[in-house]
Structures are given as structure tokens and as C-alpha cells.
Amino acid sequence: MEQTVKELHLERSKLWDASIANHTKYMDPKTGLFETKWTEYRPCPVCGQNNFSKAFEKEGGIYVKCLACEMVYVNPVFTDSAITHYYQTNHSIQSEIVENSDEFYVNLYNQGLDSIEKISPKGTILDIGCSSGVFLDVAKKRAWQTHGVELNEKEFKFAQKKGHHVHNALLETLDLKTKFDAITLWDVFEHIKDGEFYLNMMSKLLKKDGVIFLQIPSSDSLAAKILQEKCNMFDGLEHVNIYGVKTITKLAEKCGLSVLDIRTVISEIGVINNYLNYENPYLGNTTNKAYIPDLIDEKTLHEKLLGYKLQVVLGVKA
């Protein structure tokens, strides 16, 4: 019997509910938006232009689309001090869900490592935002030397107890002596306001022929384009930059990096089918089929890079 989308998403709804509950202490109840004392306006994080149109409001934040390069991002955005406070005091539900949904995440992690290992030799790997260390567990089994960075104190201690070399601080504050064959960011890069700064910083930490791997939600996703503000990709606070194929390529090139491999994972076709059937996209009762009737199947969707998340491997240009 096929599993319904509702069954798949019930566990993950705990993460969504916990995150949104944490938003309320930063919001103005009169406007439904974040209080201005926490936020600041910014130009496009990819092309630097200030020419944008409002897309929609979501859970206290406003998403806009750059009219110059088509980047989708939150504007205004939390200040550096406000967002650091938010993450340091945030819940640890993400690590609990990853630990309890082993097969789903391990499959994604192995896909990412397959992409990395096609290009870079196994050696030292640094996972930024490593949470409880499940990805590092998988990498260690594949003979990588595992290092991590995690701001959440509970998750940091959890990963450290597993024997990984983990730091509980911002990457830019660390004096790392190690150079890495691979640096990974699993569902983290969309949380970083200044992606250009981070890519440049990470490039300096790579060994010769080392790579940077990103798994990020995709603004090109068919699910995101259809559902828009109803899509869980958009949370209003944490997911500040939503890249697509064009914008992540543009940013990489700006930083002297080349896209060596790019693919999409997670189709969200079941979610789309729920929505097209006039049901809650995440809690409707549509069976989790691998196609949208008379429109597209999962294989074709990924061939066209329309999946929910991008997996991107970047290397320094010669």
C-alpha cells in the first residue's frame, strides 16, 4: 500500500511548528511582520541591485524577487546579532527528526557524497551546520575524516559525543589549521545572508582540487512555483536566500568558482498533487505517486532540474 503524503509529512510538521512558534517573540502583533528593531534592508545578495518586486509575506517575513537577476530573498532580513541570538536559542527538533528519519536523510547524504567523490578524493571533510552529526556519521563510514561546525549547543554536544571534530562557533571566528578536500552545507546555505562572503571564505579552506557541496531549496522547484507562499520552503526568517540554477551559478562565478555538478532531489510531486486536488498540500490524502497526471513524472522533473532541492558541487576555477 502506497504511503500518503500526509504520513510522510506528519513527523516533519513538528519542525515547522516549532520554528514558527519561535517566530512570534520577534513579531509585531499589529502588522504580523517582524519588528523593525530586529531587521535591516539589503540589496540583492547575488547581483547587488536594489530593484525588486514583492512576492508575498510569510510568517513575519517578506519575500521579494530581484528584477535584475531573478533571485528570491527575504527583505528586510534579521540583523547579524538578531539571527545569531535566534539560532543559539532555537529548538533542536531538526536533529531529532533527522535521527528518527534515518533512511530518507542517509539516502540524500549518500547521493551527495557520490557527487563529491566523483570529483574529489576522500580525505578531510567539514560540514557546516552539522546539527547532531548524522551526515558526518555517513561520511565517516565512507572513510572520510570528519569535522563540523554547529551553533546550536545541544546539537553540537550530540555530534561531539559521536567522535567528530566539531566547533561550537561561527566559521568566520575560527582559526582552522586544517585544509579540507570537501566542505559541505546541507540545507544551510539558504540561511546565510551573505553567500558571497561565505563562498570566498570557504574557498580559502580548501585543499588543491577541493570542492564545496551545497544542498539548497530551489526557487526553480515546480512545487515552490505552484504553491508559492503555501510552500514550506518559505519560512520568512531562516530561509533568507532562495537560489535557483541561474542565481547559484552567477554567485559561484562571482566568487571564482565553477559548477562541477548540479542535480535536483525530492520531487514533492505528492505535495503538488494534494494542492491540485484542493487539499492541504502537506496533509492531504493523495497517494504519493511519482507523477502529476497528464503533466510530468518524477524522472523528467529531475532531468529538467525542477526538483525541490538543488545539490551543487563547486570547485575553484583553474
Strand residue content: 15-25%
Strand order of the largest sheet: 8-7-6-9-10-15-12
Q: How many β strands by DSSP?
A: 15
Number of helices: 12
Topology order in helix (H) and strand (E) letters: HHEEEEEHHHEHEHEEHEHEHEHEEHE
CATH class, please?
Alpha Beta
CATH architecture: 3-Layer(aba) Sandwich
Name the CATH superfamily assignment: Vaccinia Virus protein VP39
- Per the CATH scheme, the topology name is Rossmann fold
Structural features, described:
The model has no long low-confidence stretch (mean pLDDT 91). This protein has helices at 5-10, 13-23, 80-88, 93-100, 102-117, 134-141, 153-161, 195-203, 222-227, 245-254, 269-276, 298-303; strands at residues 39-40, 52-58, 61-66, 72-74, 77-78, 124-128, 145-149, 165-167, 180-186, 206-217, 241-242, 257-265, 291-292, 296-297, 309-316. Helix content is 33%, strand content 24%. The protein has one domain (93-316): Vaccinia Virus protein VP39 (Rossmann fold). By secondary structure, the protein is α/β, with parallel strands linked by helices. It starts with a helix and ends with a strand. Strands 8-7-6-9-10-15-12 form a 7-stranded mixed sheet, sandwiched between helices. A 4-stranded antiparallel sheet has the order 2-3-4-11, with no helix packed on it. It has a two-stranded antiparallel ribbon with strand order 1-5.
